[in-house]
Amino acid sequence: MAPTPLIAGNWKMNGLLKELGELQTLAEAAGAGLNQGRDILICPPATMLSASFGILGNHVAVGGQDCHSAESGAHTGDISAAMLKDVGARYVIVGHSERRADHGESDELVRAKAEAAMAAGLIAVICIGETEAERDADATIDVLARQLASSLPDDMDGNRVVVAYEPVWAIGTGKTPTADDVRHIHDFIRRTLVERFGDAGNGVRILYGGSVKPGNAAELLAIDNVDGALVGGASLKASDFIAICQASP
Ligand code: PEP
């Protein structure tokens, strides 16, 4: 049986408390049935987590955009998975390409963060994806194989891990891979998960991320082994994000 689709919004470093009205609109749509047959997640900035949880309640999950690999300690400015859980988060994104690039996060660190997330009872959304230079060098599959091998915890539970395939060159650019490329890559990710984790690999949701918009969501979300989307820019406006949710089968 195919896993329940997940439509996840990543607000990145955007959003002030005055923007909570967008979440109110989303909560109302979810209350009216938008969340039937699909899981919906919003990852606001950490400063808005608590208020977002208050608004979205049980209809729409909230999540962090990153967590530290340690449970607590002398790590000024960082947030632990337990802290996210404490304010109502159910998920956390780890290994987003912006964290890998801006903060030099390695596959091994991403794996440690995913393990910390799972230990705290969160679902880890582990991001992988090739850069434009890697794609141009025909290295996409090699890069993804390395990231999957090294960023995913060994102790896998299909319900506690989500993999998000996000080609770096498609993030925030308006460019997307062809449907054939997405199908081919998601098939590869699925096969890799099943080879390593057995049947648990079939339960892992594989999201596509990178310039998902209301206009292309239906085509992307209909592809085999695309179990949802990780949406950046288009998640900031409730009407766009709702349209993307509605496009999921
Ligand atoms: C992202 O940052 O995860 C993302 C997919 O961004 P966008 O949808 O804006 O391309």
Essential attributes:
249 residues, alpha/beta, TIM Barrel, eight-stranded parallel beta barrel, 8 strands, 43% helix, 15% strand, binds phosphoenolpyruvate
Outline of this structure?
The chain has 249 residues and is of the alpha/beta class.
Question: What do these coordinates show?
Answer:
By secondary structure, this protein is an alpha/beta fold. 43% of the residues lie in helices and 15% in strands. The protein has a single domain (6-247), classed as TIM Barrel (Alpha-Beta Barrel). It has helices spanning 20-34, 49-56, 81-86, 97-102, 107-119, 132-136, 140-151, 179-197, 200-203, 214-221, 238-247, and strands at 6-10, 39-43, 61-64, 91-94, 123-128, 161-165, 205-209, 228-231. It has an eight-stranded parallel beta barrel, surrounded by six helices. The longest helix is centred in the C-terminal third of the chain and has 19 residues, at 179-197. The two termini are 14 Å apart. The model has no long low-confidence stretch (mean pLDDT 96). Phosphoenolpyruvate binds next to strand 8. Residues 10, 166, 171-172, 209-212, 230-234 line the site of phosphoenolpyruvate.
SSE layout:
Blueprint: E1 6-10, H1 20-34, E2 39-43, H2 49-56, E3 61-64, H3 81-86, E4 91-94, H4 97-102, H5 107-119, E5 123-128, H6 132-136, H7 140-151, E6 161-165, H8 179-197, H9 200-203, E7 205-209, H10 214-221, E8 228-231, H11 238-247
Parallel strand pairs: 1-2, 1-8, 2-3, 3-4, 4-5, 5-6, 6-7, 7-8
Helix pairs in contact: 1-2, 1-11, 5-7, 7-8, 10-11
This protein binds phosphoenolpyruvate.
